[in-house]
Design brief:
Strand 1 and strand 2 form a beta hairpin. The protein is 45% helix and 18% strand. The chain has twelve helices and ten strands. The chain has 267 residues and is α/β, with parallel strands linked by helices. Helix 2 runs parallel beside helix 3. Strands 3-4-5-6-7-8-9-10 form an eight-stranded parallel barrel, surrounded by nine helices.
Length: 267
């Protein structure tokens, strides 16, 4: 994030508006703000804190988010659902993006926007002393509009129902990204792990078309293969979760230990 005396900017939105791709590291293992520094050092634009599948306490998320804010990395949280009671509290304490899983229709997308955005777009409650402004006293006439602009609302398309209603979800004012949850959608389609199946390729293409038609951005998640991610980006995806912190750590550790044992002639 970047904030001076007058402007709060979300680097993910900046990237996408420029026609570029925003890359995010999924966070499931780390419990320190240092993961945001690692994300920055490795060329990521955001951290994707996964509250849907991992256990985090709220203070930990806030510390991670505020570290990310301070160094120009967008802190994004995947919450448990559009009904998650902690959404506005997360946004009040440094988070600048909410990812909603399992969005199946326009009504659910509208509920997500209502919770994450202030009026006139949504119904979020106003607080004061936001960390986004380093707790400076910023008039609500300025802070509300800037926080709305900086807040990224991501709706995950990961069910057959969500895919069937993707065009109406894309039409909801305040939604920024339509993000394909590749793994879950494949399971829903009865094709777990078949990342190159024509049906999932067609689903991603449909989401890209719906996003473009309504001035939104398309995302791709759960597809942990560089070549397939690059292909999706070339087709129009601009919001990508690269890999989890667990995946990065495991891959690097495996490569290192295998190299040492191989050099020593050990199995």
């Amino acid at each position: 994030m970047s904030c001076d005396d007058s402007t709060l900017v979300n680097p993910v939105k900046q990237r996408m508006r420029a026609g570029d791709v925003a890359l995010g590291m999924s966070v499931r293992l780390a419990r320190s703000g240092d993961v945001a520094r690692i994300a920055k050092a490795t060329g990521h634009d955001f951290i994707f804190i996964d509250v849907q599948h991992s256990i985090f306490n709220l203070e930990t998320i806030a510390h991670m988010a505020q570290t990310a804010l301070a160094i120009g990395i967008a802190p994004v949280v995947r919450v448990r659902s559009v009904h998650d009671p902690d959404i506005s509290m997360l946004l009040d304490n440094g988070v600048t993006g909410i990812v909603y899983p399992d969005v199946n229709n326009a009504a659910e997308a509208r509920q997500g926007v209502d919770t994450a955005k202030f009026a006139p777009i949504g119904k979020r409650s106003v607080s004061g002393g936001y960390p986004h402004f380093d707790y400076r006293s910023v008039p609500l006439s300025q802070s509300v509009a800037q926080l709305n602009e900086a807040c990224l609302v991501v709706c995950m398309i990961e069910t057959v129902e969500g895919l069937q209603h993707v065009e109406e979800i894309a039409a909801v004012d305040g939604v920024d990204v339509l993000h394909v949850g590749t793994n879950d959608l494949l399971v829903q389609l009865g094709k777990p792990g078949r990342f190159d199946d024509p049906e999932i390729v067609a689903a991603q293409a449909r989401v890209i078309r719906a996003a473009r038609a309504h001035g939104k951005y398309a995302g791709c998640g759960g597809n942990r293969d560089v070549e397939r991610q690059v292909q999706a980006i070339r087709q129009g995806v601009q919001f990508v979760t690269t890999q989890t912190d667990i995946g990065f750590l495991t891959a690097a550790a495996n490569q290192w230990v295998t190299g040492v044992r191989s050099a020593l002639g050990q199995p």
